[in-house]
Amino acid sequence: MTSAPLAARLGVPSGPLFFPVTAYGPDGSVDLDTYRLHVRRGVEAGAAAVFACCGTGEFHALTPEEFELCVTAAVEAAEGRVPVVAGAGYGTALAVRYARLAERAGADGLLAMPPYLVKAAQEGLLRHYRQMAAATSLPVIVYQRDNAVFTPETVVGLARTEGIVGFKDGLGDLDLMQRIVSAVRAEDPGDFLYFNGLPTAELTQPAYGGIGVTLYSSAVFCFAPEIALACHTAFRTGDTDTAHRLIDGFYRPFVELRDRGSGYAVSLVKAGVRLRGLDVGEVRPPLHEPAGDHVKQLARLIERGHALLEEGK
Fold first, then answer.
1. Do residues 10 and 83 touch, judged by C-beta distance below 8 A?
2. Tens digit of pLDDT for each residue in 10-65?
């Protein structure tokens, strides 16, 4: 187990960032034993970090009590081998509460989800995340998406805030992201981290890598860690042949399938985990399960992805 700061541990990732799904039993309650197994397998497969109870982990569907149990279970399963970052969000008061629960559960950091419902001005967003950062000793990564969209000037303010160590982009505006990276770099705030947080981030990672964003979420790692690891290695080593083969033959078709249903960025991933033999249950409402034909297509696509790995040997 290392005591190095989160930014240092994530600065040069050894593998994909793992966003585990949250496991539920037949009665719909959280299944902590299966969840621990899911997290443990991901760590042993080569994940560089575990992001527990975030978007793929259905943060929105968990009670505070379930959230703390899941984060505790993720920390136990990781055993200090990789950092565990927990989601936290909603309005400021609840976000602070979740942050403190994550700290009590032993998390190494926080992924700050967007505020609930309201579309706030830049001043209000900055105040919100600064209050989150001040609430615990945990380093915070701010997640840009939906109703939390930032100007470069605001991100400079975030980067100057004690406790805020990174910025994850789920918006996909590369022009804005380039200006953010440039503005923060010009102010020299230290080793600020940037993450590509788009769904199925591997598809867009070559573009993000071009502006210096090397960290990215990998939902595919949940159900096909071999494919995700091969793609991560290809990006890291400049193996464009492998990267293109996987993007063209697996990731692009997967994104096209994912886009056929609302909420599939979570429910299709969870179906993939079940296809690989681990019963993590269904998604909770308001998400819904993917259509049966789509699950069959996913099964064929996973087989195709593994065949592509064999082609590269």
1. yes
2. 887 789 999 999 999 999 999 999 999 999 999 999 999 999 999 999 999 999 99
Distance CA 37, CA 77 (A): 7
Phi-psi region of 47 (alpha: psi -120 to 50; beta: other; left: phi over 0): beta
Residue with tokens 């290809």: 234
- Establish whether the linkage from the previous residue to 286 is cis, with ω within 30° of 0: yes
**Long-range contact list for 59-67, CB < 8 A, 24+ apart?**
59/87, 59/89, 59/113, 61/22, 61/283, 61/284, 61/285, 61/287, 62/22, 62/30, 64/97, 64/98, 64/101, 66/30, 67/98, 67/101, 67/102
User: Can you say how many angstroms the Cα of residue 150 is from the centroid of all Cα atoms in its chain?
Assistant: 19
Neighbouring-strand partners of residue 17: 49, 217
So which residues are the catalytic ones?
Answer: 143, 168
Strand partners, 84: 50
Model confidence, pTM: 0.95
